[in-house]
Specification:
The protein is mainly β and 220 residues long. The protein is built from two helices and 18 strands. 10% of the residues lie in helices and 20% in strands.
């Protein structure tokens, strides 16, 4: 008895993968692939889709794959679709028109990574622009919200008697090195310090044991 091998048409697969007999079922690929394997897993998903039934968008894309159109999956805009200004590798479709970028790079914040995080400044919504670390010369508390302007980068909360856009100098009435030594001191303190060292050189007086002298040169 001669038996003929029968195949399923393109876009169909035979249940259980048997060579003949049985039923041919249509591949369920949401119109994003034309072939599937013997288990019904779609092959070569297109239109930026993936998954066993081309039922998911590729990383970096979002959308509803069940529509069955080439535009189902759109590129994430975090905040822009151009590579220079796409600061999250993935995004989520959380509702109609509600897209959230869920992996913003360090220095970026917002539902679409559209703002600079605390301690950074710039405008990521402009192509070619990015968020860069504020330069305050170590004279701010980096955990203090708003210690620098997120647009201009101007340092707003300089401490240790420092001042300037980058906390790069001692504030008025104080003297010293704000950048390296970080020793800004008031004029009175500087004068007292100078007096103290002058007195040390005076062999007739021991400033370390003279109680009255120590009180006179106190910085408090």
């Amino acid at each position: 008895m001669m038996m003929f091998l029968s195949f399923c048409s393109s876009g169909f697969y035979r249940v259980g993968g048997i060579l003949f007999g049985g039923n041919c079922l249509q591949c369920e690929c949401n119109d994003h692939a034309t072939e599937c394997d013997i288990n019904g897993v779609c092959l070569d998903c297109t239109h930026n889709t993936t998954g066993p039934h081309c039922n998911q968008c590729l990383p970096g894309y979002y959308g509803d794959t069940s529509e069955g159109t080439p535009e189902d999956c759109q590129r994430c805009a975090c905040p822009l679709i151009v590579a220079t200004n796409n600061f999250s590798p993935t995004c989520l479709l959380e509702g109609p028109g509600q897209v959230t970028c869920d992996q913003c790079q360090q220095g970026y914040t917002g539902t679409k990574c559209e703002r600079c995080a605390n301690g950074y400044h710039g405008d990521p919504t402009v192509a070619g622009k990015e968020c860069v670390l504020c330069e305050c010369n170590g004279n701010v508390d980096p955990w203090d919200p708003g210690h620098c302007d997120t647009s201009s980068g101007v340092c707003l909360k300089c401490h240790s008697h420092t001042s300037g856009d980058d906390c790069e100098r001692c504030e008025d009435g104080y003297y010293g090195d704000a950048i390296t030594a970080k020793n800004c001191q008031g004029k009175r303190a500087v004068m007292m310090m100078m007096m103290f060292f002058v007195l040390i050189e005076d062999s007739s007086t021991d400033p370390l044991t003279d109680t009255n002298l120590l009180q006179e040169t106190s910085f408090t």
